[in-house]
Amino acid sequence: MGVRVFQCQMVKEFLKFMLYGLIVYRKVVIFVCTILYRMKELNLHKIDFLVALIAEFGKRFGLSSKDAYRYINQYGGIQMFLNHYDILHTLSFRDMVDGMTAFCHRHGGQLV
After folding, report:
1. Which of 65, 86, 93, 98 could staple 28 via S-S, CB 3.0–4.6 A?
2. Which run of H or E residues covers position 88?
3. What is the pTM of this model?
């Protein structure tokens, strides 16, 4: 009986962890959608791609998605993404993160 309770508890904890991850991801997606909608550039492909780019950028520099978004936006990276989406989506994520890093650095960012 004790093992079954332990297994149920593990399953509950795992589900809570997964649900928390989905909620955080959903919040980032909603946040980015809101920004793009305000900029009148709402396009599902752009949103998905931008969310993935922000996540990869954050992963590279150890930032949360929210902090990565703030950094990229502060140095004009979001507008650059929207202006050059047609070119950026043909690159690998590594190249895009490198390009976004260089762009933000040229505009005052400190991450290299």
Report:
1. 65
2. helix 85-88
3. 0.63
